[in-house]
Specification:
- With 66 residues, the chain is α+β, with helices and mostly antiparallel strands.
- The protein has a single domain (2-62), classed as Dodecin subunit-like, CATH 3.30.1660.
- It has one helix and three strands.
- The protein has one helix at 15-28; strands spanning 2-11, 33-46, 49-62.
- Strands 1-3-2 form a three-stranded antiparallel β-sheet, covered by helices on one side.
Length: 66
């Protein structure tokens, strides 16, 4: 059985890096990640330049909540 987590992460480097950081953080926390779906991508512009890339993921991890 999988639990679905919603995770938000950002990176100054790009969307792919934000995804990788989100998944890596879950793995470091001991979660057994099976797959993810990118739900949303957005970014921030400051002083006329793109400064941040943000993703919202749904991540399937092994186990049941509670």
């Amino acid at each position: 059985m999988f639990r679905m987590l919603e995770v938000t992460q950002s990176s100054p480097l790009g969307f792919s890096e934000a995804v990788r950081e989100a998944v890596d953080e879950l793995l470091r926390a001991g979660e057994k990640v099976h797959f993810f779906v990118v739900q949303e991508q957005r970014g921030a512009v400051r002083d006329g330049a793109v400064k941040e890339f943000q993703v919202v993921l749904k991540v399937a991890v092994e186990g049941q909540s509670g």
